[in-house]
Amino acid sequence: MANNARFAEVASLAGDPARAGMLHALMDGRALTASELARVAGITPQTASGHLARLATAGLLTVEKQGRHRYHRLASPSVAQMMESIMQVASGLEAMRPPPVTGPKDAALRAARTCYDHLAGHLGVSLADALVAGGHVELMQDAGVVTDAGVALFRRIGLDVASLSGKTARLFCRPCLDWSERRPHLAGAVGRALCAHSLEEGWIRRLEGTRAVAVTPKGHRVFREAIGVR
Amino acid sequence: MANNARFAEVASLAGDPARAGMLHALMDGRALTASELARVAGITPQTASGHLARLATAGLLTVEKQGRHRYHRLASPSVAQMMESIMQVASGLEAMRPPPVTGPKDAALRAARTCYDHLAGHLGVSLADALVAGGHVELMQDAGVVTDAGVALFRRIGLDVASLSGKTARLFCRPCLDWSERRPHLAGAVGRALCAHSLEEGWIRRLEGTRAVAVTPKGHRVFREAIGVR
DNA sequence: AAAATGCTTCGGCCAGGACCGAAGCATCCC
DNA sequence: GGGATGCTTCGGTCCTGGCCGAAGCATTTT
């Protein structure tokens, strides 16, 4: 079965610690240079170069040449979703394994981070909870929809979710199980839009070099007063 | 980052061709013995035993001892979903790679197969298409719902989907991109129920030793007349 | 031009792990 | 009991692939 070979190729590509580290670093959707990726993976540039070449020719990454830099990013959202689902399984094991070693950097990640294109961590889960509690979103295991009240709420904070909808009248969002909180948060078109909007409006901002984000004072206010978090 | 190690462990576990083959064989949700799995992977029982032990201690598989047989199955749906998402990425690459080598066995798989707990392949996609065309299901990229007309349709063929719904009034189903057809089919609670019901009613039956299924004459009739396939 | 920076290619080292044959336990059957 | 059958453990071979140092290109800077 030729398919099996491709499957194994992709999985083993993600299965090397150094490459996994680099892929993780790219999970926030940005493009990073080869040297930056070498640093986060803790390997020399030569070694990283080899890894990146393999990932690129396999189609997991796309490379953009710019001057003497080469910017790497995940080739598609489906790669990010694959990463998420592997994390999902990996964190599931964690439950019955040695205690979670939580460093200070880890704490920031747990508090709030981006999950490729949407918000995750404690912040992501809190937002989802508040939206569900307020009747703005209905979530189930496999899918979710934004209610009419939800559409109104999003418009109030300056986000026109109605324009995200395709031919259908309904507005869907995808629940995404959080590996640290073990509860669903908002992904899909709505989650992506909310995350992007929050960055634009300055409600959150990225922390240098990680996927972690910080909630600004303005963001605290909006999330609490408009959405009802906490 | 300790998480990274777990991630890499899981991915590399899936990244070995022999193990990938065994995991694939288990994607229909059934439990298989060690020797059966050794055969599908094309390796000796000793080698398979080692692989299975690793997969089990890592938590990807659960083992059930029964007499002198040991039955192995995927530990959880999240493992199946991980497999799906890796297949997704792997088949994405296929687009720009050598032509798909389609053997006769592959043809059966493309026609109709189970994807862990729901129907995929040409059959799965056709069913989804027909349900959407008939206004029984609304599908978008991230999620889908069964309409009132859909609930009635499912009841007509003896499937009480209303009982699947949790606390919410709505009935969700998850779209799952098909690796052979490149189009979405029905997964999630509704997809699972439809697949199980079809097996019970004898509309489809499993082909020995693979994930492929055959549509029976009775099944052809039901799918065509009640759901409007083809 | 010359030097610095970012990245890649080459060559060689080394460890992890995939594989099988043989042997050892269990369990079931006669 | 004796003999199949299913599975595992052990020991040993072999090869893939990850890693780095050194050298080689390409681009930008001085």
Describe this structure in words.
The structure is a homodimer of 230-residue chains. In chain A, the strands form four sheets. In chain A, strands 6-7-8-9 form a four-stranded antiparallel β-sheet. The first copy, chain A, is globular, with a radius of gyration of 19 Å. Chain A is built from ten helices and eleven strands. The longest helix of chain A has 18 residues, at 77-94. Chain A is of the alpha+beta class. In chain A, 50% of the residues lie in helices and 18% in strands. In chain A, β8 (172-177) and β9 form a beta hairpin. Chain A has helices spanning 2-14, 17-25, 34-41, 45-57, 77-94, 104-111, 121-133, 148-156, 188-200, 217-227; strands at residues 32-33, 61-66, 69-74, 113-115, 118-120, 137-139, 144-146, 172-177, 184-187, 204-206, 213-215. Chain A has two domains: 2-75, Winged helix-like DNA-binding domain superfamily/Winged helix DNA-binding domain (Arc Repressor Mutant, subunit A, Orthogonal Bundle); 104-227, no CATH class. The first copy, chain A, starts with a helix and ends with a helix. The interface between A and B is large, with 63 and 63 residues. Chain A binds a DNA duplex (30 and 30 nucleotides) through residues 16, 18, 33-35, 43-51, 53, 67-70.
